[in-house]
Amino acid sequence: MATSPCSSSGVSSSSSSGLGADAGLEIRTRSVEQTLVPLVSQITTLINHKDKPKRSDKTLQAIQRVGQAVNLAVGRFVTVGEAIANENHELKEEMSVACIEARRAGETIAQLTDVASLDHPESDSHITIFTDKTGVVKAARLLLSSVTKVLVLADRIVIKQIITSRNKVLATMEQLEKVSSFQEFVQIFSQFGNEMVEFAHLTGDRQNDLKDEKKKARMAASRAVLEKCTMMLLTASKTCLRHPDCESARINKDGVFHRMRLALEQVIEIVTDSRPNGENEVAPISIYSGIKEFKNKVEGLRENLYFLSKENLSTMLEVILEHTEDFTDSAYTSHEHREHILELSKQAKMELEQLVSVWMQAQNQKTKDLMEDLEVAILKTCQCMNELKREVHSAATSLAADLLKYHTDHMVLKALKITGVEGNLEAVAEYTCKLSEQKEQLVEMCRLLRHVSGTEPLEITCIHAEDTFQVTGPQIISAAETLALHPSSKIAKENLEVFCEAWESQLSDMSLLLREINDVFEGRRGEKRVYLSLPRPGKHNANLKALKPVKLDTEEQAKIAKLGLELHLLTSDVDSETEKWEDQENEIVQHGQGMSSMAYSMYLFTRGEGLLKTTQDLFHQAEIFATEGTKLASALHALSDQQVHDDDKALLLLEAEKLISMCKQLQITAKASAQGKSATFTKVDACILKTRNVMTLLCQLLPLCCKLLRKNKAGNGCLKPAPPWKEDRIRTGTNARTPERRVDTFGVKSLENHVTNMTFLESK
């Protein structure tokens, strides 16, 4: 199916200044959103400046510098956008128009803020920010809209890359299906493996970048299917080639190919935000989400007695109670839980009847007594719904815990392997029936858990688990039948092992999922679902207990905010210093830029934003930052060897030793173990503090090194006023080891760097 890249192009953001970009533009990724943040902040600073009767020279100069900085950064930004347009002809027209608009808006802002040299900047004879505030707002809106459009158009190319990668995978899969010899299969599968690795990297980056947690969970589920199916495809295909006349082997292989195609299709649906034939996705409603919405409506009656009808409330309760039938009709729900659920359902109807009665009276006559009765009815209705929620949660999770404990020995799978190798078709048939029963139990468990999962991402994880059991069960059966028909076949035995491992892995994942569902119910939000990540951390997830990443809560973010802001300002200072270097390929500059980029990611972490999601991510970033600092110290040693004067050489060596010492301290802190919430926060605080100290030293080192280089070159100069954009020095914020890219393989990152550079006067 031919799928076109996502056609969204824009932003829906606003500020107190009245700035609002094109409402028709929608941002779906964090990278685009975060790239715009400093630009919005900078422009808001301009528009929200205080209109004082007297303005100091310092204020006028600051305003002019901000305007010039915006214009220069937009100019470099547009240059990259134009280069991208030239490399992607299908977007050239749209991109060119957006670039022209952005350049024009940047120049307008620069003209309106050119006030430092005027004796009377508020005079009507000169149109400035002081005399034409509306003009500034218009230019700012145009700038935000056009810059956003460039970013989202650039994002379309990332989507196009994913679609192209998917198409390559599909084409190679078709070749794999048709091969008739082992030699041909090995050659094509090698190509297929490389293509799957590329697809995994592209979709992994996209998954991390998605703003919508529901889409992120769907992407994770699809990628988990592709990961597991890649090994299944290998062994199933080899089995089919070895036993070409075996019907069960063919069924087994066809099932793998079909599931992979579905997963590939779902990935494209997510990245393009579209569905085949324009269908809308209908999400199943869970009991939890139904109760949550119902309670919100009921509690809303305290503020407004007329905002909904009694029929609406009755319908909502009916839908919830219909879903409880999934529990009461299930053969796996205990008698005690079934009775309690039926009893609470009956009570919920009675409480709603009483609530509606008092509510209707209160609409006609709003007396104090009636309002007190209404409050009591609201509380009793909500309490009843909470008890119902608790009961279905207990029913689902106790069933899940019992089933997972019962099936933990994998006795049926072991028996299938043994009887298959023996060639005992009758025994294999007996155990395949038992596996089918087990599959039905686990599928029912997943359906019930979905009702009580508590969040949309966890609901999607339950649906994914249900699908996995539904599909993997029959695949194990067909693999076991093949082995029983060919008991001496090593490849048939290996194939059965692979499918059994997938089943065992899913059971292991269910234990983690159950724990997270309980965490949500008890008010402890579960951490990132590592059990759906690629690649998986070890075959049996043995190291998950050793590594428990945590996030900062709101209170901790508030405590560390000042340190984070200081780090942010230092990154701006470092960026300003590196911009002054003529030789942007200089090793010192590149290490400085890498460290600044990583420090900016750490600043975003203190605000609960950016790509560093957990404290473990932060500590890892701090280690990489310290390593980069050590490399910079080596570059300083090399520069000291070039110095003619002993004083200069001694100064550089002293600064290099200081830097090495600071980086070692940071590495020790980042690697130190921390148990418990308080100790972890102390470690976070220490890492940010030591990173700030290194950045402070870096701010002093860069101008010193540039001065010494200029001195060495005897006037040739290493500075220039407005350095052009160097396409081949793009670096990402979370990993300084990312290889440099050219414009034709760009993402949004190349554009992001330019807007980020607009932040250096944000505090003015």
TrEMBL record:
Chief location: cytoplasm
Keyword DNA damage in annotation: no
Localisation per UniProt entry: Cytoplasm
Regions of compositional bias (Low complexity) in chain numbering: 7-18
Gene3D superfamilies tied to this protein: Alpha-catenin/vinculin-like
Region feature Disordered, mapped onto this chain: 1-20
An example Gene Ontology molecular-function term: cadherin binding
Source domain of life: Eukaryota
Keywords carried by this UniProt record: Cytoplasm
Pfam families referenced in this protein's UniProt entry, alphabetically: Vinculin
Family matches, as SUPFAM superfamilies: alpha-catenin/vinculin-like (SSF47220)
GO BP of this protein: cell adhesion; Rho protein signal transduction
InterPro entries found in the cross-reference section: Alpha-catenin/vinculin-like_sf, Alpha_catenin, CTNNAL1, Vinculin/catenin
The protein's name in its UniProt record: Alpha-catulin
Organism from which the protein derives: Leptocoma aspasia
